[in-house]
Structures are given as structure tokens and as C-alpha cells.
Amino acid sequence: MAVLAAVALAACRTTLPQPEGNRPPPPRSSPTTPRPVDPNNPNAGRYALEHDEAPDHREVPADILNVPDAVPRAEPRSRGGNAPSYSVFGKTYRVLSDARGYRNSGMASWYGKKFHGSATANGETYDMYQMTAAHKTLPLPSFVRVTRTDTGKSVIVRVNDRGPFHPGRIIDLSYAAAAKLDMLGVGSAPVEVVALDPVEPIAPSEQWLQVAAYADPINAVVMREQLLARGHAGAQILIDDENGGDPLHRVVLGPFIDEQKALATDQKLRTEGYVARWMRR
Predict the structure, then answer these.
(1) Which CATH number goes with the domain that contains 236?
(2) Who has the most CB within 10 Å: 8, 35, 103, 110?
(3) Which of 146, 172, 195 is the last residue of a domain?
(4) What is the 3-state secondary structure (H, E, C) of the chain?
(5) Range of the domain at 163
């Protein structure tokens, strides 16, 4: 813990250069914990390092923010990395037999130069400039949509590695995926991870901005009218009665498929004094 604290303090003292072109600003190094080590694996020595390292900004491709998302497709399970169970740091993890229906929320981190060019858990080569990720229990490979719950930014990645084994983190993203989610500088971010079925076509991701939620429908109508008066033509009320109790009347804007339009609307709401939250239906 003392080593991690020292690393964190050192990172806090780092002055970040200004971004060049389409490159994200060089981030602080993101602490990354070791992945399972096969004593017969010639790459095992990479796990001896205490912390990960971001690439030098001169090494980052100019179009890093335009790297296309992974495209889900049907693939056979990898021969490596899919044992029914494995243990790391005294804890046993059981690999899911099927990714379908998987959904979880928690913190995401990213891993970079320390692992670049090394073997992943399923025997592929880790390329931090591709849209990949590490997960503790999803079958390898799997495809998931990762959405930042605080900003609504979303990417699709291919899971081909194991990790992260830091408490409280549910997925480790490649450098490219973290760049597109705008989380390089902060190191970790709250996300929702949803497995995608490669057999089914992917519908565009619809996002909503919830401005308020009321048990009293009259209050919801008043808020909707306020938003309409401010020029938010998409303001509407969604009734949520899935929990079997009194229905909840959510005042929302959307749905949004275009990410830039959604982010612009969120910013406009903030300037008007509203604090909206992202939601999906």
C-alpha cells in the first residue's frame, strides 16, 4: 500500500503537457494490478513491476480517438484463459459458461505500456491501441459495451484477457478504449458493462437524460413544462412501475443516438442549473 501511495502522490505532482492535434493529453500512470501468472510462461516477468505506465505522447497514434469499436462476431472459445476456475492472490474465480445476459456496474481502470506486446490470458498479443479489455470471469473472447455512467460515453470492446484484480474494479480497458471514454487522466471511472450477443444485430445505443423523478405526476408535469419552455422539445415523462410499488414519473430528454448531441444537451442543462443523469431503456 505504501508503494501505491507513493506512486499516486508522484502522479499528482506531474504536469500534463498540452494535447497535440487529435491526441489525448498524456495521462498520469494508471496503477494496474498483476494478472494470473503461469510459471511456465516466458512473459511472467512482466508482472514483477509495481505499476503500469502510459505511453509517451509521441508514441500515441494521432487518430487514437478514432480507433473503431470492436465488432461483435461469433468466435470459438479460446484454448487459453477459459479454465472453469483459477486463483489469484488466494481468491478463486469461476469463468462463466456463457456471456449472454451479463450486466454489471462498477469501476473501470485501464492498462498500458507495461503489458503492451505481451501475451494476454487467451494467448493473443496485447496491443494497447486496439479496442480490447480484461475481465475476471467472462468467457474469452467476449464482446461488451462499456458505458461511463457519469458522462454517457460508450465503447464496444473485445475481452481477451484476465483482470483487473484490484478490489472494486470490474474491467480493465486498453489504452485506446480508455482514451475514447476520456478516462486516461483520472485512471478509473464508473461504468456499466453489458455483454453483447454476436449472433444478434446490435441496435443503436439509445440514451436518455433524466432531469428529475417524482412519485407525484403533477410535479413531473410541472417540470416537463419548464423544460419545454426553455426550448427542450424532447422533454417527456416515462412512467416506471417495474418494482411493483408506487410508479415513478421520470422527466427525461431523449432518446439520443448521436453522442455529440447528447453531450451538448447535457451541457446546456448544466448551464441552466439542472443536474441530469444518464439512463438507458
Answers:
(1) 3.30.70.1070
(2) 110
(3) 195
(4) CHHHHHHHHHHHCCCCCCCCCCCCCCCCCCCCCCCCCCCCCCCHHHHHCCCCCCCCCCCCCCCHHHCCCCCCCCCCCCCCCCCCEEEECCEEEECCCCCCCCEEEEEEEECCCCCCCCECCCCCECCCCCCEEECCCCCCCEEEEEEECCCCCEEEEEEEECCCCCCCEEEEECHHHHHHCCCCCCCEEEEEEEECCCCCCCCCCCEEEEEEEECCHHHHHHHHHHHHHCCCCCCEEEEECCCCCCCEEEEEEEEECCHHHHHHHHHHHHHCCCCCEEECC
(5) 2-195
> Is residue 103 domain-shared with residue 211, that is, in the same domain?
no
Other beta carbons within 10 angstroms of residue 252's beta carbon come to 22
Q: Into how many domains does the chain fold?
A: 2
Q: List the CATH number of the domain containing 91.
A: 2.40.40.10
202 within a domain of the structure (yes/no): no
pLDDT tens, 175-211? Answer: 999 999 999 988 899 999 999 987 665 555 667 889 9
216 and 127 housed in the same domain? no
The torsion region of residue 152 among left (phi > 0), alpha (psi -120 to 50) and beta comes to: left
- Check whether residue 172 and residue 270 sit in a common domain: no
Q: What is the pTM of this model?
A: 0.59
d(CA 133, CA 110): 8
- Block residue for cell numbers 467472462: 138
59-112 pLDDT per residue, tens = 777 888 888 899 888 888 998 999 999 999 899 999 999 998 999 999 999 997
Could you tell me if 131 and 161 lie in one domain?
yes
